[in-house]
Hints:
This protein has a nine-stranded mixed beta sheet with strand order 5-4-1-8-9-10-11-12-13, sandwiched between helices. Strands 16-15-14-17-18 form a five-stranded parallel beta sheet, with helices on both faces. A four-stranded mixed beta sheet has the order 3-2-6-7. The chain has helices at residues 46-55, 70-78, 124-132, 149-159, 186-190, 200-214, 253-266, 271-286, 312-322, 335-342, 351-359, 376-382, 400-405, 422-432; strands at residues 5-10, 12-25, 32-45, 59-67, 83-90, 96-102, 105-112, 135-139, 164-167, 181-182, 218-222, 228-232, 236-240, 300-305, 327-333, 366-370, 386-390, 410-414. Helix 7 (253-266) packs antiparallel against helix 8. It contains 14 helices and 18 strands. 33% of the residues lie in helices and 28% in strands. By secondary structure, the chain is α/β, with parallel strands linked by helices. It has two domains: 5-20 and 35-286, UDP-N-acetylmuramoyl-L-alanine:D-glutamate ligase, CATH 3.40.1190; 300-432, HUPs (Rossmann fold), CATH 3.40.50.620.
Amino acid sequence: MTGRTLVVVGDCLLDVDTVGQVSKLSPDGPVPVVQTTTETVRAGGAGLTAALAARDGGRVLLVVPLADDADGATLRAALPAGVGLVAVPWQGSTPVKHRIRASGQTVARVDRGGAGGPIGPLPDAVAAALAQADAVIVADYGYGMTADPAVRALLADTARHRPVLWDPHPRGAEPVPGCRLVTPNAVEALGYDPGPRPDVAAVADRAIALRDRWRAGTVAVTLGPAGALATVGVDGVLAVPAPPVVAVDACGAGDRFAAAAGWALAGGALPTEAVAVAVAAASEFVAAPAVPRSAGSGVLVATGGCFDLLHAGHVATLEAARALGDRLVVCVNSDASVARLKGPGRPLQPVEDRVRILRALVAVDDVVVFDEDTPEQVLRTLRPQLWVKGGDYSGVEVPEAAVLAGWGGRVVTVPFLDGRSTTRLAERAIARS
């Protein structure tokens, strides 16, 4: 992103997270008592989009209305140093979203502020910022910025000269004509909550209708874990699947999507290419840590290997391992680790491909990549009850056994299919080529 400028226009919020622990219910009513451990404040809304964009590098300018109140002063201070601020006068009150969280869950949310008021007059710095942009993101959160006639006129003119991505809001104004990419979620596109599995045909029809209504280049409806559906051609749609991840907290996923897509457009990507980049970035943003923390109350089983060319022997081992417990985590050697173990020319497939294939298997619940020659460190973090090896290790002492003994786990072997190996597959492929 070096040398490029991304301008984010929209509504800024103050996000407050109070994090604590719950050990009892209140005597005043059946509600949890949260003992506070930490409290953080950060810029939300368009401010979060700008902050996430700044992490990717490049120059980021944030154009937002800011109220002259105490929360507004806190919001200004919360903006990261890498974001240039162009403040528009606003007679409203700063919107604040305050989440109370415990054990990784939100137990309550308290909102305040956001009362409307006139915006402007627009400082000359707004037009100057838009003139410098390689791409513009409009992050609408429904507090009036995108409905202002002067703002809309500037954005409409900008859309004639450079890519504008518009992330709409149900309470906000419609996108100006000429936007390169508009990214409603399923609720915003359909006008109702379709549930966890939206009707793809209905979403596709609505996306095409919205593209024509808004006179946009592309409309991409974001579908959460299902990825996104983008219009192509006259009446076609492109499904962009999301990689399988375990989401910890979906808050901010839309902002990460917009930031990644905005930078892609700034670099000359086609809208559908920008959507693919954004889906991957949003999935990574909400994903759980690479190493699962526990298997809950069930039996956690782990196994490992290079899995360079997945064959029937691998599948048999994985299925047998999964049958021994409630959750199977596969520990996969990184590319560097495989090269050290197997020598020149290996791996045959990069780790990203190996992980994706493994995650597609029904027997596999999660995949962890490790860079060492043996997975001892990742096992200390996972602490599985069982570490499964193929039958060719039967009766052979393995280094992981001593590690598992530290918490009462043990190594077990399962039968393997004779004659299956990655090396033999590779040799056959070479011989027949």
